[in-house]
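User: Show me sequence and structure for the first protein, then do the same for the second.

Assistant: Starting with the first protein.
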Amino acid sequence: MHSWFANIGVGRKLAIGFGLVLALTLTLALVGWNSLGSLIQRSDWMGDISRLNTALTDLRITRLQYMLADGDDAVADKAQAAYESFARLHQHTLSRFASPANVQRLQAQGVEISAYQQSLNAMRNGYHASRTAQAQLASRGTAAEQALAAVRVDEQSLDDAQRYADLLAFSQMNEHWLKVRHAVLAYTGKPEADRERQALAQLADLQRGVEAFRAEFSGASTAAFVAAVQGYQQALQDFSKAVATIAQARQEMTEQGYEIVRLSEELMDIQYTRRDAESAA
């Protein structure tokens, strides 16, 4: 082969040399172009993940605004719109990935996103139930006050021998009722565990005195008062259940949000690792 190369002309030698240089240059250019294309594609995927994270942040902010607005329906609609926008973007992002490692994490995010919708629905139902219970508390509270006032009117017709004992019993029940109303208003105004316990304790004290009160005052007004108190107690229980539902939904959405973020971080780490490997190739 050395003899063959030595026997060819200078022109051919130069042509072969330039040809080899050209082939090498074209090879390097193709490799570089493919690497650049891979880097651009990788950057696009990283941008998709970043936009997904931004949409999740918007959703979480809107959900917090919804809670700060105490379940306002208009803000609830904004939270739902933010969720739907995030879910659509996630589906679009999933369609752009083919690698099993990426698809697996995006699908896991999809599970959390579906659960987020269920928790958001539960929170909305909780706020609706809360408002209904508060309306019932107001209605039954007014009915109890009116019935108790009617008992007071009935008591005025009693003879002097019974009046003192009846006045004492009425005053004690009225005091119990005022304490219940005050404790419940404090609890519904700011639903906290301590305030709930105080409201329930005051209501329990009231219930313990109801039987003695009914024995002292056996008229129709007393029966109406007792029925109103029972309805008031049920409304308070409904309100407590609604508050618990809202708290549970909030906890679920917090955990779901953390899991979606964790999966996004894993997705981004995969892109970083592959980008570095492609750059070094």
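Switching to the second protein now.
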Amino acid sequence: MKIEHIAPADIEKRSMEIIDQELGNITLPEDKRDIIKRVIHTTADFEFARTMRFSDDAVARGLDALKRGATILTDTNMACTGISAVSLKKLGGQKVCYMADPEIAAIAKKNGSTRATASMDKACDIEGPLIIAIGNAPTALLRLAELIEADKIHPDLVIGVPVGFVNVIASKEAIMKCHVPYIVATGRKGGSAIAAAICQVSPEKTTGRGTNISDQRLQKKLAVVKQMLATNQPDATDGLDVLTKVGGYELGAIAGLIIGAAHSHCLVILDGFNTAAAA
């Protein structure tokens, strides 16, 4: 097989081109296309082009939740690590996994349940927009379905892609019967890497168009955002580092004004996304 010499920055782009070629006559729905291609890119398994299932409003509900600063809860630390903290931080969101919490371990031992099940119970206390991504434990998905039916939790989106043999298919079928937006990989296939891939937030999906700009200007804006993130690599755990590296002078000025107002105990009224991001 011929070796392709591809610049590091172009490897993902070339991979997506190969995926498009090998999909052949398979037509993917436009709003779901990017997600399915990311799953294929992660697994090199084209079967996912046929086995992924989306509720009618899943993609829109998920994007809306992300733009409102959603918390993404995962059932493994692997999936949590694979989700871009920088992109979430930019949107005011966060990612969490309770699997290593001593409290969860103690509750699971006491109840004779899995940690994944106990994590879903704890998720009921999460406030604000919520996306739950299950890539490993069908017990988590089954417990989540019970909690949804009991009206104890209301996630904006459930990503159900656990992998394995015991109760995997049944858990996915259970979540698809709930009245909740979902993205599910039917069958036994799945995994934490797939859960993380589905959760990835691309600049194309989250960068605002702005006021009265042309398509050409929008593409330029997207290119700048991508280059800015790649070049500056802001630390998502450090708000000042994010502001310094990707905020721009105007957001820095707004942040300074808000800090000054807070110091003087003055009320600040925010008029849009940019001012809220600075706050």
